[in-house]
Each structure stands twice: as structure tokens, then as C-alpha cells.
Amino acid sequence: MPTEKQRQFAADLRFMFTALVAEGITDDHAVALLCRLIEPQPARPSSADRSKQIAALLASAGQKPPATRGPADDRAADLWNPPAPDLGAPAHD
After folding, report:
1. What angle do CA 68, 74, 80 make, to 5 degrees?
2. Shortest CA distance to 17 belongs to which of 29, 5, 6, 3?
3. Which terminus of the chain is more solvent-facing, meaning fewer CB atoms within 10 Å of its CB: N or C?
4. Is the Cα torsion angle 11, 17, 23, 24 positive or negative in sign?
5. Cα torsion 9, 14, 17, 19: sign
6. First-to-final CA distance of the chain
């Protein structure tokens, strides 16, 4: 026997399905989209863990991991402030 919370969830899904179909999405695509929304997503590792994994992969391939730069280094290299496309025009609007 479904609980009240489960019944409400089913009603919400039915409403979302009906709204998607009313907007022109096919039945199959609407079901696929709803399944994608309620499917539990795998946990993403933290950026530090990802950096370590990338460094390990590069090391195993015999390559040196890229040096990391901070925002100040990027600004110093004009990565955040490219030159103006028109001569005499300001770099920023």
C-alpha cells in the first residue's frame, strides 16, 4: 500500500508528464526526461580528488601534470582582459 508521500510524488510526476506532452514533447521523451530527473546522480569527487586523479593518469602516461595558475597569474597574462578588437576602443564596455 503506497504512503501519502508516494501518492503525492506519483501525482506530481503525472502532472509533469501531462505538462511536457502538452508542450509538444513525445510520450517517450517525456518519460525519459522524468526518469532522468528522478534518477539518483552519482556523487562527484571533490576538485582536489579530481586533480589528483588527473595527475596520476598523466604520470602513468609518462606526462608531467600541467602547472596550476591562480587568477592573478591569468590576469597578468591578459587572459581575462583581452585586447580590444578595434584599435582605440576600450577593452571593456
Report:
1. 140
2. 29
3. N
4. negative
5. negative
6. 62
Residue 21 dihedral angles phi and psi, to the nearest 5°: -65, -35
In a domain, 58, yes or no: no
pLDDT score at 77 = 64
90: in domain:
no
Secondary structure (3-state) at 79: coil
Asked if residue 20 is part of any domain, the answer here is yes
Position with higher pLDDT, 3 vs 50: 3
The pTM score is 0.43
- Domains identified in the chain, total number: 1
The pLDDT of residue 4 is above 90: yes
pLDDT in tens, 23-67: 999 999 999 999 888 887 777 767 777 778 877 887 777 766 566
44 inside domain = no
